[in-house]
Amino acid sequence: MTTTQKRIRVLHQQLYPESNSLNQIQHNQTLARMSNRKEAVRVVVTGAAGQISYSLLPLIANGAMFGPDQDVILHLLEVEFVLPALQGVVMELEDGSYPLLKDIVATSDANVAFKDADFAILVGAFPRKDGMERADLLSKNAGIFKVQGQALDKVAKKSVKVLVVGNPANTNCLLAQHFAPSIPKENFTALTRLDHNRAKGQVAKKLGVSVRDVHNVIIWGNHSSTQYPDTTVGHVVVNGEKKSIRDAVNDNKYLEGDFISTVQKRGAAIIAARKFSSAMSAANAIVDHIRDWVLGTPEGEYVSMAVPSDGSYDIPEGVIYSYPVTCKNGKYTIVQGLTVSEFSRGKMVATYEELADEKKAALEQLQ
Ligand SMILES: NC(=O)c1ccc[n+]([C@@H]2O[C@H](COP(=O)([O-])OP(=O)(O)OC[C@H]3O[C@@H](n4cnc5c(N)ncnc54)[C@H](O)[C@@H]3O)[C@@H](O)[C@H]2O)c1
Ligand SMILES: O=C(O)CC[C@H](O)C(=O)O
């Protein structure tokens, strides 16, 4: 510091003594925060140069997923020929000046990407384009999840939490789980939070209320057009008054008809309109899923997660099935004891049967 700078500093302190003490307080708080700071978590995102990731990565880097005190190290996996484009994404992350982003690993080698991973968000897969059937995806994408399951098994932390997004998400998740036998089965989940959020959105729109007033809708089963968006136990709170969704909407024909098919076909409607599959809303749902799994759900609030079936609600073990769950201390629990009507049972079984068929086709494919 030059003599002039020192004189200016002394003068400034004389003129504004309180600013000095304020600076000191802020400085001390920063030091305290830094000494309390949790160790950075390693978060793998596959398909990192794709369209979902382009919306997702800034949300992870800015703390929306793990909170404002959690540093992150991003491990970005892409296929080799997309690495030049991934470099552009890395440059943008560097230029984003994200205080929580500690480091970035960008690679096309799954064993490098999954090394010591705490979280693995498996987005990388081919999306359905207009005119393609979902069944086409199974044959295109199954191999990816075998290789990535094997890499997770070999090099990730045994506590890694996995979220599969790439379609068909539930069955790809089952494949990754199958090829990673050393990782607890319950650590494998698939994304149906987007469907859950879509269901809330439709109810809110119908009632002219905010989505924050809509609670405990449920998505059962597969992330596909057989999913069952269920409003039977959901409620709304408007002006402090709690009402069941059934009573508030007062139109069961809609709730058991157009509402269900709108949510089931929303992904297809977005592809038809955008010519690309949903990305911004998918990224937002990914953040919701991991954040709630790690940081917990508000008291009394159900969210939907596709998790290994365990016989709950008479859905046989062995598929990845979307259930209502609550989360606490980094664990999810399937909500038990809900009444299931005959109408609901039929829909829950139909979506299970689709999952059982997908599982058979996927395993045959990888023989
Ligand atoms: N579960 C859900 O709610 C949900 C919602 C929206 C989209 N999706 C699915 O997510 C997937 C990704 O969608 P997108 O729009 O980002 O697609 P995209 O084509 O824009 O991006 C996918 C990326 O994955 C990469 N990739 C392909 N194989 C890979 C591999 N083996 N390892 C690493 N990266 C690989 C591709 O190079 C590409 O950059 C699709 O399968 C889509 O159907 C799921
Ligand atoms: O391919 C689809 O039908 C849907 C794509 C995506 O999973 C979505 O739900 O938006």
UniProtKB/TrEMBL annotation:
Gene3D superfamilies: Lactate dehydrogenase/glycoside hydrolase, family 4, C-terminal, NAD(P)-binding Rossmann-like Domain
Domain Lactate/malate dehydrogenase C-terminal: 192-364
Entry keywords, A to Z: NAD, Oxidoreductase, Tricarboxylic acid cycle
E.C. number: 1.1.1.37
One biological process term in Gene Ontology: malate metabolic process
Active site: 223
Binding residues for substrate: 128, 134, 167, 198
Assigned protein family: Belongs to the LDH/MDH superfamily. MDH type 2 family.
InterPro entries, A to Z: L-lactate/malate_DH (IPR001557), Lactate/malate_DH_C (IPR022383), Lactate/malate_DH_N (IPR001236), Lactate_DH/Glyco_Ohase_4_C (IPR015955), Malate_DH_AS (IPR001252), Malate_DH_NAD-dep_euk (IPR011274), Malate_DH_type2 (IPR010945), NAD(P)-bd_dom_sf (IPR036291)
Enzyme superclass (EC): oxidoreductase
Positions of the Lactate/malate dehydrogenase N-terminal domain: 41-188
SUPFAM superfamilies: LDH C-terminal domain-like, NAD(P)-binding Rossmann-fold domains
Protein name: Malate dehydrogenase
UniProt: NAD(+) binding residues: 141, 165-167
CDD domains in alphabetical order: MDH_cytoplasmic_cytosolic (cd01336)
Reaction it catalyzes: (S)-malate + NAD(+) = oxaloacetate + NADH + H(+)
Native source species: Acrasis kona
High-level lineage: Eukaryota, Discoba, Heterolobosea, Tetramitia, Eutetramitia
Signal peptide annotation: none
